[in-house]
Each structure stands twice: as structure tokens, then as C-alpha cells.
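Hi Y.,

Following your request, here is the sequence exactly as I used it, all 210 residues.
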Amino acid sequence: MQWTHVPFAWGPVYLLLLLPFYLLGLGKFILTLASFKLMALLSYLGSAYIIRRLSGARGLILFALNPLIIYEAIVAGHVDIVMLFFALLAIYFWTKGQKMSLWVSLLISIGIKYATVVLTPIFLWPGKKLANSATILITLAFVSALGQVLSRELLPHYFLVPFGIVALYPEKRFWRDLVIVLSLIFILIRYLPFLYTGTWLTIRLPLTPF
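Below is the corresponding structure, written out as C-alpha cells. Let me know if you'd prefer a different format.
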């Protein structure tokens, strides 16, 4: 019911990625909805796998067991989880020194929703490695989320990308705790009122569209 003034609300790459899942729906609403959820689930699992490869079990737990991420990525199936997967894939190829695969993955991520374009500088920094790039990479990811908040509204799924990036550095206590606190705030302020009242319209909160 929103974004009716534009032909497509996201980047052109996302439209291409949606096509096979749309065809999988066979023109039926429920099947198409389920196939779109499948794409989100695959992106979530792919993101979790990459995080596990790069940061071990602690990073996996920080990401995959976060209730907010589970809801926004799997239940709601937001496009940001697909964007995050390809951003993480770019980071993975970066750690392996595979520059061509890095840039292809990053361009796909950017072409999905444009927000991850802010991550580009980290890949242009000569000699930078994952182990010593935490502050810059995480800061860029949060800049991306805050840019969307300031230009639109405060929506939790905007933080899927920075939360996923933070999971690459579970030893960074400040950022790890920030993710936990923000997740709790989003759950308590945005979703518990709905669960309590059964509707979005009976309670009005600041920084929300309702």
C-alpha cells in the first residue's frame, strides 16, 4: 500500500533476484508469498554461515539467535537480509583476496537497495584486513542505517546490516552490547504494544509511522 508513486521500491538487482521466486509461486498469492519468504530464509541462513566462517560460534550466536533478526529476516522477510547476505559475501571474498568476486558481490548488494554503498571505502583501503577494520566497517554500517532513519523513519530492519557486521566482531564488547540493547528496545517499543493490543492503531509512539 506504499511506494505506489514508483514502479519498484528497491534496486533493479532485487527485481532480478525476485523473478525466479515469483515464477516459483505459479501465479498464486500464497505460493508466491511463501517463495519470497524462502528467499529471505536462504539469505538468513547464508548470512549465518558466512558469519560462522569468519567469526566462529560467538558471532553466529550473536546474529542467528537474536530474536529481532529472526523476526525481521525470516518472519517479515525484509529485503535488507538479502542485501546483508551479499554484503557479507563481499567481506568474505575480501578476506580471501578475491577482488573480482568481492566487487561482484558488493555491486549486487548495492543494486538491491543502495544502502550498502557506504561500505565501499573499506574495500578500497590498501592493506586493511578484517581483524583490524572493526571500527571503520561497523561505523559505516551504522551510518547506512542512520541515513535511512533520517531520510525516512525509524524501522528496525534498517539495522539488519550493522547488526550482521557487528556479528563479525563478537569480541568487541561495546558494539556487541549496543546490538543487544537496540534489539531489546526495538522489541519492547515497536512489537510488544502490538502483541498486547492486537493492532498497530490503538497506540501511538514517537518515531513510528502510526
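The chain has one domain: 12-197.

Thanks again,
Q.
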